[in-house]
Amino acid sequence: MKTILIKCGGSVIDQLSEGFFSSIKKLQHDGFHIIFVHGGGPDINEMLDLLSVKAEFHNGLRKTTEEALAVVEMVLSGKTNRKLVDLLRKNDLYAVGINGTDDNCLQASMIDEENLGYVGNVEEVNNKLIIRLLEEGYIPVLTPLGITEDGIKLNINADYAASAVAKSLKVEQCLFITDVDGIMIDGEVASLIGKEEVLQYIEEGQITGGMVPKVTSALAAIDSGLNSAMIVSGKKEFYSAEIWNGTKIVANERLYK
């Protein structure tokens, strides 16, 4: 089963265009199955502030307290996930929202309970539910929440969740959605670039700002065992007639120059 995983951050969902959804339809027409993993940072932060949930930080990372976790799940499953599922439906794409704790899909363990609270790493992916939905022609839309052996729910970084699911499903490609056309080097989009070059351009300051975490996530996906990952725009078509638009990052050391 040829599968494409799409990681979509919460800040990008509202910017997804008709061209973006058209690309998904074309991928399906070409025989690919699609799965989304989404984040929801802006929605979560807005609700935490609205409910006056006190923010605790450790080394710059927000600690997920039990109170905060309840808000995280409420927002991710009840708002962000539904928003993305509804957008897909409105574009005639059949999607099903699932929580990472459903059927113990994202089996996780705590990273550092004392300092980070209910934050986890994915230890194993139980992909039976995902595969069944894919086989039935649905687009699973996965909320990045995990669950421990003891039934404790954990907040999972969406990029790490995407990498774990991509590896489990042996996907053909992992796409990270952004609001620009790809990685810009010397004013031009780099269509193909090696991992070592990416690290070099980050160090040199050619890759900056919000692109850095996207690229870092793509590199993490490659490190998890994928041959490549892509940075594509959610504001336009990224696929048509077997042609990809965006930046493909591969494990090879140097390709761009």
From TrEMBL:
Residues 2-232 form the Aspartate/glutamate/uridylate kinase domain. Pfam families: AA_kinase. Keywords: Amino-acid biosynthesis, Arginine biosynthesis, ATP-binding, Cytoplasm, Kinase, Nucleotide-binding, Transferase. GO terms for cellular component: cytoplasm. The record marks 7, 214 as: Transition state stabilizer. Substrate binds at residues 40-41, 62, 155. The keyword NAD does not apply. It catalyses: N-acetyl-L-glutamate + ATP = N-acetyl-L-glutamyl 5-phosphate + ADP. This is Acetylglutamate kinase. It comes from Niallia taxi. The gene is argB.
